Each structure stands twice: as structure tokens, then as C-alpha cells.
Amino acid sequence: MSTFTTSDGTDIFYKDWGSGQPVVFSHGWPLNGDAWDGQMRLVAENGFRAVAHDRRGHGRSGQPWQGNHMDQYADDLAELIETLNLNDVILVGHSTGGGEVARYIGRHGTARVAKAVLLGAVPPLMLKTDANPEGTPIDAFDGIRAGVEADRSQFYWDLSEAFYGYNRPGATESEGVRRAFWLWSMQVGLKGAYDCIKQFSETDFTEDLARIDVPTLVAHGDDDQIVPIAAAALKTAQLVKDATLKVYPGAPHGLVGEYEEAFNADLLDFIR
User: Fold this and answer.
1) Is the pTM of this model over 0.70?
2) AB hydrolase-1 domain location, by residue (predicted)?
3) What 3-state DSSP class applies to 269?
4) Which entry of 95, 160, 185, 201 is annotated as an active-site residue?
5) Annotated catalytic residue: which of 27, 58, 220, 253?
6) Catalytic residue check, 220
7) Is 47 helix (H, G, I), strand (E, B) or coil?
8) Please, what are the domains in the chain?
9) Can you tell me whether residue 142 is helix, strand or coil?
10) DSSP state, residue 218
11) Per-residue pLDDT reduced to its tens digit, 153-184
12) Which residue, 227, 184, 147, is CA-closest to 59?
């Protein structure tokens, strides 16, 4: 297993496949780097170097009591990039990972970054406020906290249905996909999982997005039940200077089926 130790003593697991221009993947909550395996293999087979880490508290990384917040997630990403001495990096973030990418650029700039991809990403702000009426009410996030605290195993299994849009009429459900989601989710420490809910829902990334000065692909399914597009990609594409917006009709939050195939093609086109 490949790991490095952050400056605060947390071990971070990562995978490093292939060679060429680096593509660094940041995963969503409550998953880990394995959620990107299909895309990692795709880019590595097409002449790129694919790197994906497990966020602190998630997967095979350490589970510290402290540091489960967006600034630290971004700093961990920075330490990964610096440890591997990566340059001309293409950053790819899904959901919470999209927030991590935005906050990384907000805190560390784009000296090492060539492009960015934000897929189903949480920026600029998920939470409904007076200034963000399209957002999701706090009650929904309180419900997530309650579910994780009371019976996280059942909660993650139930969440997988809407995550992949299997609750929609005519959807072809894969029990295997749901089982994989559950397995990855159960690897998250309870403390890290709980803390991260506040981070993906209440962090305002508006200023971070304004600092992105590299070509950026903003991709989102318009039937995303987890991160609704109106408060996310539609706003992000207006805030990022050099953004290309790609909307996938009827697509859910999680990459699956025809949605995954379409995104994979767009990802390759964008990074080439």
C-alpha cells in the first residue's frame, strides 16, 4: 500500500497508476478513491498518470479526531501533490471532492495545475440561505447526521438508491453497485463521516471558484438528487472564468451506466 504522512501526522493512502501528465482524483462522501477506479484505468491506458487518495477519515487513510474540515482536506491534497512532485496537474473532483479541488485552488493557487474538472460538485454552496434560495434546507443535512449517527449501515444502503437514481421509474438497478457503495461507505470512521457532512453542506466556495484561472469542465446530471444542479453547476459555471458547462439529461449523482460512459468520453476529450 502506498501512503504518505501529512505534517499533522495523518497517514494518507493513495493509488498511483500509469505515467504521463498527472490526473489527480478527489472522491465524494462517504466513499474513497476506489470510486474512481474506472476513470483511473481509462486515463492511465490513454497516456496519463492517474492518482487518487482516500480522504482523511475515509477508506484506508488514517482516522484522526482533528482536521476533518475542508481547509485540511485541501492541504492534504496539496501535500500529496508536493510529495509526488506533480506538475501540470489535472484535478478531478466529484461531489465533496469537487469542493476539495476548489478549496485547494483557493488556498494553494494553480502553479501546479493545468486544468480542473468538477463533477456533480458541491460548490459554490449546498445549503439554502437567504442569499442562496436554490440550496438545500438545513433539515436535510440534519437528517443525514441523524441517519449516520443512528444506524449508518442502513443509512448508507438506503442512500445508494437515490445516489445512483435507482428510485426513478424505469431505472435498471445494480445491486452490485449499491453493495460497492455500502462497502466503501462503511470504511469511513464515524467521526470523520459525521464531521464531513457540515463541510460539504455549509462551506461556501464562492471565493475559491473566483481564483480558478485554468480551463475547467463543470459537469453535472440534471436529475442529481444529492447535489441539485440549480445551486451547484449552474452557478459554478458562471463563477469560474474559463468554464465549460456540460449537463447530462436525466443523470443522477453517482456515475453509472450511460451517464458514466458519456462522462468518460467527455473527460478524455477535455484532458487531451
Assistant:
1) yes
2) 22-254
3) helix
4) 95
5) 253
6) no
7) coil
8) 2-271 (3.40.50.1820)
9) helix
10) E
11) 999 999 999 999 999 999 999 999 999 999 99
12) 184
